[in-house]
Amino acid sequence: MHFSKCKQAIILPLVAMLITTTILGILLGQDRYAYSQSPETNSTANATGSGVDLIDIHPSPSDVKAGSNFELLATVVNNLPDTIMLPAGRCDSPLTAFFMRNVIIRQDQFQSCTATSSPFELNPGEEVTVAGPVPGTLYQAIKAGETPATATVYYLTENGQPGNVTKRFAFTIS
User: Fold this and answer.
1) Which of 134, 91, 96 is nearest to 116 (CA)?
2) For residue range 43-55, what is the model confidence (pLDDT) as tens digits?
3) Model pTM?
């Protein structure tokens, strides 16, 4: 497998997603509610097997208080027969989330990152915990209560095909 080509295949979609998010943030204002995500589960993982799974999705810190910023942690499980690649490093995250209520997603103009890292290989049967969002994006709790959300992890298959898996989860903001 040629890692340079795979690295480009991971970096380019992430850069496009970051640019799109930045443009939408500017057009819609600094703060925006993330109500537009459909609660339906979506996966482009291998339909014939159990594919890639996303488990144990939770905020960090675990006791999120209204007015505070937080990140998400989730475990990615590779149930495919092939290796998958995840964006990795201080400046990359394969994990994003959309919140149905009680949270805003903000762009932090003072927090940016320019370093690139090689993708992380996750072999068949292995799992890894990932954190999100990417640098420059903040999840901020604005109201106490039960908070339904969806988390999505993006990856590349061994043959360079992009994939993702989305799971619903909920947590309580105090």
Assistant:
1) 91
2) 444 333 469 999 9
3) 0.70
